[in-house]
Every structure is written in structure tokens, then in C-alpha cells.
Amino acid sequence: MGHASVARSLTRALKAEKATSGHAVSTYVDDANLVRSIAYDPSAKELSMLASVVAASPDDQHCVFLDTIPMRRQELVSSIIASLASAHNRAIFTGHTGWLEGVYMEDVLWWRELLAFMRIKAVFVYHGLDVCEGACDLESVARYLDVPVIHTGVLLPRICRTDTRRQPQALAISMGGGVRGREIADFASAIACANPEWDVDLYLGPYADLSPGVSPTRLHTKQFAPNFASTLTGYAAAISTGGYGACMDHIAAMVPAMFLPLHIEQEANVRWARQYLPGQLVVDTNNRIKVIPHNPRPAPRSFSWSVVENLL
């Protein structure tokens, strides 16, 4: 696995289906300390350990599912290649959200060579055709990749059973990983000051650096929780970045929201995700907020491990 936002959603989906599928799930990520610190998978292991684990296991005990291939880190790519060299008879898969920052034919040809070299059996897209209707970026280049591109469904979290009631005029603002945490915190502070009738909670990301601290009267800072979708069910509205995991949390919680995408891929996430929310939060030039309700699309099809099992 790679990117924390997708890895969090995928791990939840796989672990939720473990009991029915009979497959144990082990998570290897490129920043295990971060993953453990936000507590969605306290047993996460470093991706660099994958080669030794796969080599020591019988071929029929594992399939290898690479959430992403972290090309930016040569030592991790080397570890993955070494592990796959030991996986003689294993099924090897990878996946993607389906939305790309820019598609050029030279990139597509490189991806095809990489997929062939790593013996990837299929690429899973983390949404169904009911979401993109065959128009996502990855589907547009699928015929050039020489491996099946399969839409599996979205990685929606399960809402934990809770007695929490949605509180009127309670607003949750979350910053994703927190890479631009200072900017989002300043925005949250302005929202809290301009809307004194709202209770505003700011959920900090693991990368957030808010020094000097943010402490306006009506802004409460909290740590991100692993069951954040369940937490969101207690709010009347929300503001969030546009990461894949954030979109999944807000769709599952069915909370009106405004997304603040940080880059092109997040903009693509937001375009489809907001159609499944029961309303939109808008902010005027004076930072006053208003919820505009609308009828959401029917819930998107969810990921099922059986789609993977059919290819084993």
C-alpha cells in the first residue's frame, strides 16, 4: 500500500470482509509509524519488510495486493520487486482511485511495461461503473495496459453503532493529513469567528504544524479519529479536503459538506463524491456559512472482496 488516504479506506474494507472471505489481511505501508499514529491499523508494518515475509511463506497462502506502487522511493520499489520475485504462483494485483492528474501516452506505455514486469494480474478501480459510467481517467486508457481494469466499488467505511444524534449548528472541519494545516486552520478560525452561533471543531491531521497555536473562543481542536465517519454523524455540516478517504467518510456519514481540494486528483474526487451528499455547505465573502440541502444520488456500490476472489 502507499497513500495513507486510500490505504486507510482499503484496509477497513478488507478487514471488514475478512470474516466472510476467510482471508487474513496484513497491511504493509511506506510510513508505518504514521499509520499507527492515526490508529486505523495499529498492526501496520513497514513495506520494506514485505520481501522477507513473502519469501518465508508458502505460495498458496497469500495473494499480493499493492494499493499503490510508490515510485518516488527507490528502496521500496526494490523491496516490492524482490517480494514479487519470490511470489512464483501468487495472484498479484494493484489498484487506483481511477482519477489521474494528467494522462500522456508515454506514461501509459511506461505503466504497461511496469505492470507486465511486476506480473500484475489485474488493476482494481476503487469505484464502480455506477459512479463514473466508464468515463474515469483510468478507464480511458485501460485498453492500452494489457491487463484487466476492473471497477470494484467504493471503499465506504461502516458506521459504528452509536447513539450520537446529529447536533444542529455543529460544524466539523478536517484537514486530511495536514500538509496545508496552517492554511486550513486559519480558514477554520475565520469561520468560527464569523459564525458565533455554530460550534466549530477542527480535526488535526498527523502532519499538521499549527505553531503558533490556534485558539479562538469558539474553535475547538481535536485529533483525527480512525472511525471518523461515525464521528461525522454527530454534525450538521462539515468542511474537508478532497482526499479519497475524506470523501468516503462524508458519503458514509451522509453529512452536508464543502470540500477544499488541494490538487487536481482531489478535484476529480470531489466532482463525483458531492453528488452523494444530502446537501452542500457554502461560505459567503464574509465567511458566513449556509447549508443548501438537495437530494443525493442513490448510494454508490461498495467494494466486495468477492470481486478479487473470482480472479484467484
Layout of SSEs?
Blueprint: H1 4-21, E1 28-29, H2 32-37, E2 45-46, H3 50-55, E3 64-66, H4 74-86, E4 92-96, H5 105-117, E5 122-125, H6 129-132, H7 137-141, E6 149-151, E7 167-174, H8 181-194, E8 199-204, E9 219-223, H9 228-232, E10 235-241, H10 244-253, E11 257-260, H11 264-273, E12 279-283, E13 289-293, H12 305-309
Parallel strand pairs: 1-2, 3-4, 4-5, 5-6, 7-8, 7-10, 8-9, 10-11
Antiparallel strand pairs: 12-13
Helix pairs in contact: 1-10, 10-11
Task: List the keywords.
12 helices; 19% strand; Rossmann fold; alpha/beta; 312 residues; globular
β-strand percent reads 15-25%
- How many structural domains? 2
Number of helices: 12
Strand order of the largest sheet: 9-8-7-10-11
Rounded radius of gyration (Å): 20 Å
Q: Summarize the helix and strand pattern as letters.
A: HEHEHEHEHEHHEEHEEHEHEHEEH
Shape: globular
Termini gap:
19 Å
Number of strands: 13
How many strands, which pairing sense, and closed or not: the largest β-sheet? 5 strands, parallel
